[in-house]
Design a protein that fits this description.
Family: Belongs to the cytochrome P450 family.
InterPro entries: Cyt_P450, Cyt_P450_E_grp-I, Cyt_P450_sf, Cytochrome_P450_Monoox
Shape: globular
Number of strands: 12
Function: May be involved in the metabolism of insect hormones and in the breakdown of synthetic insecticides.
Radius of gyration: 22 Å
Structural class: alpha+beta
Pfam family, one: p450
Strand order of the largest sheet: 1-2-8-5-3
Number of helices: 20
Helix content: 40-55%
Main location: endoplasmic reticulum
Oligomer: single chain
Strand content: 5-15%
């Protein structure tokens, strides 16, 4: 490993610590550190986190080759920090991820997602009504309203609960509001080497906080599990089965099921809420694009019709804004995979040793000026067909690639766009300043550090819809 590592450029490493100290900065500064490394050393950079060799690859062709390979099908060491919350399963990898993913996959395919349309529309309508009651002169963080909508949508679809059950789910609101802080804690522990030492972690008080979060999550998932077990005593058809039912019927260990329930829950409602809030904020800051999207909705969907899959396929302006949000605010700022078999990249110049951690810097890839004109500006038009065809398709990978890609991409896309349509056709959004002025932060995903702040006012819908 040491001999092969010499062939990859990178910063000098200290004994024992390696390069860990350069990453011991505030979360928002870590994006800058990765940018500095790739700017200085190029598309292939090595760095050591203690004894672990990490090789960062930013070449799009090699990224596709590696992520679609069968020899990098295990998550990297950083995912160990998630396991107290979501176990050894779908998101974190380990020996069960492939089997568990296969079990729940039917609940995420296009046919299943089409059946969720009525729930998505109803919850999105409720969100639009709630937002319409806001003071039109008052700026507020729209994320908290949106996450309530996505949470209810996930509970009633992937978790199989009724509306009444989801409204009364044990500790749901606590989990919904604390998920962000939970991710902040995970990220802090991940990036502070001294917190890896159990006694220091305990004395800092963070072990107690973590235990409280774990208890909160266990209370929630135990309630979901019991509700679905009760429901399964009655007849359930293949068409009515949800992801939780499928896990139960496979007779998995209860603890495994609860951990996968939280994985399904948090990766669906929290991530989707961030993207919805991002799209709404982008439209608030880009009035011309907001009117384009509104006119397109009016012509395609009308003012009252339920949003369907066919409608969404025709909303091209909305799709461009959606993709620009995914580019600008990466849901996963970086991916890490473990190399299980020696692999050669960079036209044979670099060999990745076994047990190396492959790092894919998605945020930096999505900001690379070789593929993106003015990458630090928000420009939805970069996703016009004539611009897309001139860009390397592997330079845009918001949902990752290969067998470990995002399981919920179809689900999330339909949920997010349905919510935006229901909101935009009823409300006009406004915000102060520019998007580029807003400070970014990272706690696993990239987000706006001070929230998604905007104003809303009711539209005067006198235009005739097609």
């Amino acid at each position: 490993m040491l001999e092969l590592a010499k062939l990859v450029p990178g910063p000098p490493a200290l004994p024992l610590l390696g390069n860990a100290l350069i990453f011991m900065v505030h979360a928002k500064e870590q994006l800058k550190i990765v940018n500095q490394l790739t700017s200085k050393y190029g598309d292939y950079v090595k760095f050591w986190l203690g004894p672990d060799l990490n090789i960062c690859v930013k070449n799009p062709a090699d990224i596709r080759f590696l992520l679609t390979s069968n020899t990098v099908n295990q998550k990297g060491p950083v995912y160990e920090f998630f396991k107290n919350f979501i176990g050894d399963g779908i998101l974190t990898g380990g020996k069960h991820w492939k089997a568990h993913r296969k079990i729940v996959m039917p609940s995420y395919n296009k046919k299943a997602v089409q059946q969720f349309s009525s729930v998505f529309n109803k919850e999105a309508e409720d969100l639009a009504k709630a937002l319409s009651k806001k003071d039109p002169h008052q700026t507020f963080n729209v994320y908290f309203d949106v996450v309530n909508c996505t949470t209810q949508s996930v509970c009633q679809t992937l978790l199989g609960l009724t509306k009444e059950e989801s409204l009364n789910l044990t500790r749901l609101r606590e989990v919904m509001l604390e998920t962000h802080n939970m991710y902040q804690l995970i990220h802090l522990k991940m990036t502070r080497w001294w917190l890896h030492i159990p006694i220091i972690y305990y004395l800092s008080g963070r072990k107690r906080i973590e235990d409280n979060y774990i208890k909160m999550v266990d209370d929630l998932t135990s309630d979901v599990l019991q509700k679905r077990k009760n429901a399964l005593k009655h007849e359930v058809t293949e068409n009515s089965m949800n992801a939780v039912d499928r896990l139960i019927l496979e007779i998995l260990d209860e603890e495994e099921i609860k951990l996968e329930i939280f994985t399904i829950f948090t990766t669906s409602q929290e991530a989707s809420a961030k993207i919805v809030a991002g799209v709404l904020l982008f439209l608030a800051h880009l009035p011309d694009w907001q009117e384009r999207v509104y006119d397109e909705i009016l012509a395609t969907v009308g003012l009252r019709d339920e949003v369907t899959e066919e409608h969404l396929k025709s909303l091209h302006n909305l799709d461009m804004v959606y993709k620009e949000v995914l580019r600008y605010l990466s849901i996963g700022s970086m991916l890490q995979r473990t190399v299980e078999k020696e692999m050669t990249i960079n036209n044979g110049k670099i060999t990745l040793p076994v047990n190396t951690s492959l790092v894919v810097p998605i945020h930096e890839l999505h900001r690379d000026p070789r593929y993106w004109d003015e990458p630090n500006k928000v420009k939805p038009e970069r996703f016009l067909p004539e611009n897309v065809k001139n860009r390397d398709p592997n330079a845009f990978i918001p949902f990752s690639l290969g067998p470990m890609d995002c399981l919920g991409r179809v689900y999330a896309t339909k949920l997010i766009k349905t919510i935006v349509v229901q909101v935009i056709r009823q409300l006009k959004l406004e915000a102060d300043g520019t998007l580029e002025e807003l400070e970014l932060d990272v706690a696993i995903s990239v987000k706006f550090a001070k929230g998604y702040n905007l104003r809303v006012k009711k539209r005067n819908n006198n235009r005739t819809s097609a």
